[in-house]
Amino acid sequence: xxxxxxxxxxxxxxxxxxxxxxxxxxxxxxxxxxxxxxxxxxxxxxxxxxxxxxxxxxxxxxxxxxxxxxxxxxxxxxxxxxxxxxxxxxxxxxxxxxxxxxxxxxxxxxxxxxxxxxxxxxxxxxxxxxxxxxxxxxxxxxxxxxxxxxxxxxxxxxxxxxxxxxxxxxxxxxxxxxxxxxxxxxxxxxxxxxxxxxxxxxxxxxxxxxxxxxxxxxxxxxxxxxxxxxxxxxxxxxxxxxxxxxxxxxxxxxxxxxxx
Length: 260
Description:
CATH class: Alpha Beta
Structural class: alpha+beta
CATH topology: Ribosomal Protein S5, domain 2
Strand content: 25-35%
Radius of gyration: 19 Å
Number of helices: 5
Number of domains: 1
CATH superfamily: GHMP Kinase, N-terminal domain
CATH architecture: 2-Layer Sandwich
Largest sheet: 6 strands, mixed
């Protein structure tokens, strides 16, 4: 981004105007479609403005960790491909993709949205391993929030494959749903100068001085926090961001529940 473009964005924000005409606390339209990948146990596509992320869930039988013999596992992975944004490069995972996966993974884990004990097949020997793969199809900012919505929607859409005689039949899905309870919703707030915004576009995200991702449960309980950017945040700013994220999460959760 050129210096002129950055100054133009900041100057507009100081006047209370975003380049796409939104208000500071306004999300772009969000749409959610589930069951989009027939070869996955669960899947979803979430679109927010021009950011679109697809999520797929694959399940496998594996051996549990020694310290958790009665619990299955959950992992979230993200792959950022050049087809979604020219800034992304093929090859090993970038720091951006690693952070994206970890922030979303932490919110899901800390909320204990999945009863991992229900994933146990044979204590100490066999458990279900749940893997969520995220891939942006198009990127225009706010990948954490959109990616998390896709991950949760895909998990809610997941059905166990048939498991019999020690073998998994991936061609046959059962009616058994993944034990998803609490729905954690992250909302990323960015600070550009003295202005606080939700659902930043790619350009707004690039000029942001600081950001805070707040993941909350239905009752407002905070599951996780992730600070980004070089600028510090005051306690008052953190409090304001948490309140804003909690309110926005309720709206996003309503959209998600309706889509399911």
